[in-house]
């Protein structure tokens, strides 16, 4: 006996025919209304103090977010995986903070089409007050944009994320 057609089994054919990514993401968003909309990532636990301002600002605006620590240099596979899955998980914007040779925002942007906002951070061994991270984040090659806020200004990253979301 042959298998019933998906439509006969209650599954609309459109859902089985390789729906475009945006359509699939919209369907997932409908299913999981509590999914975070903004991902806040940072290169080290030592960045947490500065990056908490982004989470606080989003909370105050009623925008759901998630916070993760992942280093572009120490855990490149984890960063790539996170960025590749972000849109399908319902995220709409990613805020990425890092200090020193701050590769994290750029690496995230290399693996997702979502808007990425970089936060250059100062750390114990920063040079020129965080200029190292500022240039690492802002000087992206053409075609792979990262928005860049001021040094240690995670709050502005959250405000910009809210504006991108139209909230
Ligand atoms: C960067 O190196 C991190 O984003 C952090 O700002 C800096 C120092 O990291 P730790 O040595 O404190 O882990 O990758």
Give a short summary of the structure.
By secondary structure, the protein is α/β, with parallel strands linked by helices. It has helices at residues 21-31, 48-60, 76-86, 104-110, 131-138, 154-165; strands at 38-42, 65-69, 93-99, 116-121, 147-148. The protein has a five-stranded parallel β-sheet, with helices on both faces.
Q: Provide the gyration radius in Å.
A: 18 Å
- Structural class designation: alpha/beta
- State the end-to-end CA separation: 53 Å
Ligands bound to this protein structure = 5-O-phosphono-beta-D-ribofuranose
Record field, number of beta strands? 5
The geometry reads as: globular
Number of domains: 1
Characterise the protein shown here.
By secondary structure, the protein is of the alpha/beta class. The chain has one domain (33-165): Rossmann fold (3-Layer(aba) Sandwich), CATH 3.40.50. It has six helices and five strands, in the order αβαβαβαβαβα. It has helices spanning 21-31, 48-60, 76-86, 104-110, 131-138, 154-165; strands spanning 38-42, 65-69, 93-99, 116-121, 147-148. A five-stranded parallel beta sheet has the order 2-1-3-4-5, with helices on both faces. Helix 2 runs parallel beside helix 6 and helix 3 (76-86) packs across helix 4. The protein is globular and about 45 Å long. The N and C termini lie far apart (53 Å). The model is unreliable at 1-16 (pLDDT under 50). Residues 42-44, 46-47, 71, 98-100, 121, 123 line the site of 5-O-phosphono-beta-D-ribofuranose. 5-O-phosphono-beta-D-ribofuranose binds next to strand 3.
């Amino acid at each position: 006996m042959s298998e019933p057609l998906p439509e006969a089994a209650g599954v609309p054919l459109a859902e089985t025919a390789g729906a475009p990514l945006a359509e699939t993401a919209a369907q997932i968003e409908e299913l999981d209304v509590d999914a975070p909309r903004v991902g806040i990532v940072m290169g080290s636990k030592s960045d947490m103090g500065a990056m908490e301002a982004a989470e606080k600002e989003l909370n105050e605006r009623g925008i759901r977010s998630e916070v993760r620590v992942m280093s572009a240099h120490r855990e490149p596979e984890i960063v790539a995986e996170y960025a590749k899955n972000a849109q399908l998980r319902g995220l709409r914007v990613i805020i990425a903070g890092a200090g020193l040779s701050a590769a994290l925002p750029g690496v995230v942007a290399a693996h997702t089409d979502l808007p990425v906002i970089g936060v250059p951070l100062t750390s114990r061994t920063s040079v020129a007050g965080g200029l190292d991270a500022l240039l690492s984040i802002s000087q992206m090659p053409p075609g792979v944009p990262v928005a860049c806020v001021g040094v240690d200004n995670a709050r502005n990253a959250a405000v910009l994320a809210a504006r991108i979301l139209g909230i």
